[in-house]
Amino acid sequence: MEDHIRFDREQCELHLLDQRLLPTEERIVVCRTLADVVEALQVMVVRGAPAIGVTAGFGAALALAEILRRGGGDWRAAYDAALDVLAAARPTAVNLRWGVDRIRRLWRAAGDMDAAALLERIKDEALAMQAEDIAICRAIGRAGEGVIGDGQTVLTHCNAGALATAGYGTALGVIRAAREAGKRLRVIADETRPFLQGARLTAWELQRDGIEVTVACDNACALLMGRGMVDVVVVGADRIAANGDTANKIGTCGVALLARHFGIPFYVAAPLSTIDPATPDGSAIPIEERPADEVRCLGGRQVCPDGVPVYNFAFDVTPAAFISGIITEKGLLKPPYATTIAAALSA
């Protein structure tokens, strides 16, 4: 599935499948301005670190097109400010900053190119980023499918599939590649409260692919592992620190702790762009806090008493010591991660 992020180059519009409505409704949100893209990122029309990075490329094109439509003034200063706004839309997924920085580098390298010509170059770059991400996810799948044995059951948390990327997926890319290699497998998808990405999105993707999937509530994980119902865990990532500490959807660290207790391998699948060498360890990763009503309400119905405060941290950090391997497009990285990550990035 590669049509959930679609760019209309002629009209300079970004068409996004609204992931908030899945699996019961498939609706397209059309973004024409920087504000449209920022809102789509913040309310999670589009989510998942690689998909956020790709969206940043298209958002950068829309921002410059909007400035050109307005005309007048110093377009360079206005564009610099617009890229800052885009980069700040969400704090945890490093791919957002990565995507904006890639466009900035292209702009700086273009020198005195006029804005209209630059816009076409940025469109080219954003489309290249989208195509590269699909190729990278397929490479991650090939690199990681060996961690899943024939007949095994894989547990995954949140959604790290085609919807979280430009297509194919990271964690689900590993699962898809194992299936394509002829392996029989089953998947357990944690529901992933409060946004239910596992129940709504992962189950939807895998069912469409004909891959056997069962949804389990988040707090069933210990029971499932204790009964021998899980053979391997594969999850995605929103930011990986230089030492291998990994930020992913809230609840991931708990899954990793349980996997360690029950002796189950725990793998992270992510592109190298999700690794942030400027972040030394997990303590330096900013953790996004989202609106309380995402927890207070379920399906539009209030489930918490009035006046009771809510914690709604969107991510947690899994220590590198709990991770069996990090699957990237350059292969499977093993501990010590400070060494293997640095080598992969330098290569």
TrEMBL record:
Site (Transition state stabilizer): C158
InterPro entries membership: IF-2B-related, IF-M1Pi, IF_2B-like_C, Initiation_fac_2B_a/b/d, M1Pi_N, NagB/RpiA_transferase-like
List of residues binding substrate: R47, G48, A49, R90, Q197, N248, K249
Reactions catalysed according to its record: 5-(methylsulfanyl)-alpha-D-ribose 1-phosphate = 5-(methylsulfanyl)-D-ribulose 1-phosphate
GO molecular function, a single term: S-methyl-5-thioribose-1-phosphate isomerase activity
Gene3D superfamilies the UniProt entry points to: translation initiation factor eif-2b, domain 1, Translation initiation factor eif-2b, domain 2
Enzyme kind, highest EC tier: isomerase
Catalytic residues (UniProt): D238 (proton donor)
Keywords: Amino-acid biosynthesis, Isomerase, Methionine biosynthesis
GO terms under biological process: L-methionine salvage from methylthioadenosine
Pathway it works in: Amino-acid biosynthesis; L-methionine biosynthesis via salvage pathway; L-methionine from S-methyl-5-thio-alpha-D-ribose 1-phosphate: step 1/6
Function in brief: Catalyzes the interconversion of methylthioribose-1-phosphate (MTR-1-P) into methylthioribulose-1-phosphate (MTRu-1-P).
Protein family (similarity comment): Belongs to the EIF-2B alpha/beta/delta subunits family. MtnA subfamily.
Protein's UniProt name: Methylthioribose-1-phosphate isomerase
Organism: Candidatus Desulfovibrio intestinavium
